[in-house]
Amino acid sequence: MLTQKRPNLLNGCLPMVLAGGRGKRLYELTEESCKPALPFGAGGQRLVDFTLASLRAAGFTRAIIATQYRPAPLIRHLRDKWADAFPDGLLIRDATRLSRGGYRGTAHALLANLNLLEREGVNDVLVMPADQICDIDLRPFIQHHRLSDAPATLVAATLSSSDAEHHSVLEVARDGHVSALTHRPNAPAEIGENSGRSLVATGIYLFKTAWLRKELPDLSLGRFDISIEADLLEAALREKALQAYRLPRSDAGREAYWRDIDTLDDYRSALLDFAAPQGGTARGSPPLSCLHLEAQPGVIGVGRRSALTAKGAVSRDCHLTDTLLAPDVSLPAGTIVEGIGRTNMRWFRRSGDTNLITQAMVDRSRERLH
């Protein structure tokens, strides 16, 4: 008796990685390359590696990479590190080659690649941001989307309500459909009464290609730019066609790790989550359970709540607080960085709660002091 072959969960599903972001709120760190190419630790990893590790762990062998702002360092990294892991190809779809004026928003990136998706026979497109870190096993998410038969499904995570103000906040009915979505609300809706926690969209989506073909051309009429959150999700919400998949907790009950890298504070906090204190070993286990990076990032913590983004040199008599050191910084002996108005801060940048130091800033400070 012949046994029936089980269908491959990934059949008809293709990832599209959105990797074109500039990251204006990361200032000097993204002057020469896009945000997904930011270094993450001394081991040579880049921010995009977390996304690609998730795709590889799920079993994908092919993916679209949508690039736009200063993509050359990112493309070199993808070809050097990830080409063998995706034997059926990483399709680089650079905006400047595909669309006059480039991608005009995240939803426009989907529209500009829609013909390719249809030629590839893609039924469901998995949209992944390349500028965040998420502890996600993608296979249950894909299965959830397929079983619900929803045109659009998003991954949702919980945050403190104060942090949720900077994200798209969701209200979800018991059957899983999204009943309300508010972008960057002043008073985010909480999960339960007085929980202090809110449900937010992570930027990971699954869309049926046929539904995108129906919606995207109309959304783009007379519009300079269209985004997934502000336009495409709103269309799905109006049709009651938007489902939510909540990041599952670990067996120990811990919430899945998710961090969007949008600001210097975000970047520093994420690095510190992976950091080993100077002269010591990593504190505890890495905050990711589902990813299979070939090597841990090897982030080096220096001073109080401070970290190196990549390799660098910091003298032992430097005193750093809430500081982020750009790649290849060589910090002079006696440098003190504690906050606005403190020693040396007139040479460096402060944004939010983070002090940023690049080698160019160090060089300028030396020139003016001498």
Automatic annotation (TrEMBL):
Keyword annotations for this protein, in alphabetical order, are: Nucleotide-binding, Nucleotidyltransferase, Transferase
- Superkingdom of this protein's organism: Bacteria
Q: Name one Pfam family in it.
A: NTP_transferase
List the taxonomic lineage.
Bacteria, Pseudomonadati, Pseudomonadota, Alphaproteobacteria, Rhodobacterales
> Which positions fall inside the Nucleotidyl transferase domain?
15-272
One GO term in the molecular function aspect is:
transferase activity
This protein is called: NTP transferase domain-containing protein
Q: Which InterPro entries match?
A: ADP-Glc_PPase, NTP_transferase_dom, Nucleotide-diphossugar_trans
Q: What protein family does this chain belong to?
A: Belongs to the bacterial/plant glucose-1-phosphate adenylyltransferase family.
